[in-house]
Amino acid sequence: MTLQTSAPKGFFRSLSSKIIALQALTFVAMIVVGVAGLFGMERILDRMETIFADRIVPVQQLKEINDLYVSESRIIVDAVWAGEISWQDASTIVDRKQARIEELWGAYLLTYLTPEEVILKDAVAANKGAADRALEQLATLIETENRGIVRDYMRESFYIAIDPIYQSLGDLTQYQLGEADRQTVAGQTIARQTQIVISVISLLVILTSLVIVWVFTNRMKRALASAVRLAEGVANGDLAKPSINEAMTKSATCCRF
């Protein structure tokens, strides 16, 4: 007796096709996870570069400008008073400090400035002229090589002229530090969001794979059960064609490669 089995046609009717589909799903999910991670890392890197270029470097520039106006001038005068450097050296140093201030200020102006920062920058620029004139006056007095005049100028006039830019530079520096902290928090938020996206995608892939494996396993169990019943029926002499064809069709549908 010849038995005819007819299995439904279609790509997902064979076990091998289902395994290929599961592998393809896993591969696509891995690509999605990798792309999401790469995108998140690029955003974090861009944020960190922004913090360094537009916040950390400007803070360093502004602090050095502040030091050049305030503490460095005092150090030069004290060194002259103590005889540690000559008047000529002091004059050269003051000129070099003035050039350095202009270099740093010009570099700072090339960085990205937020609207709030522009307001603070304008306040510094408004006070910079008086501070520059105070340094010019100090350089002129140093050329006289008169310790008393230089000392009196530092005590009575210099810091009065310098104080406004000292305050405005301090305000601008504080703003930069606040922005750096805000950008850091934003970068940390992006990192957490990326971790969540990757975790969710990975969980979905795992759950989907488990569901597919469960479905495959159940169908294979049903096919094996049908095959066992078929074998038992044949062993018991049950050669009814419909039951045999049905069992063989189920087995072929679930297990054929």
Automatic annotation (TrEMBL):
Boundaries of every Chemotaxis methyl-accepting receptor HlyB-like 4HB MCP domain copy: 16-183
InterPro entries given in the database record: HlyB_4HB_MCP (IPR024478)
Superkingdom, natural source: Bacteria
Keyword Transmembrane: yes
One Pfam family cited in the UniProt record for this chain: 4HB_MCP_1
Bilayer-crossing regions: 20-39, 196-216
Keywords: Membrane, Transmembrane, Transmembrane helix
This protein's name: Chemotaxis methyl-accepting receptor HlyB-like 4HB MCP domain-containing protein
Source organism of this protein record: Marivita lacus
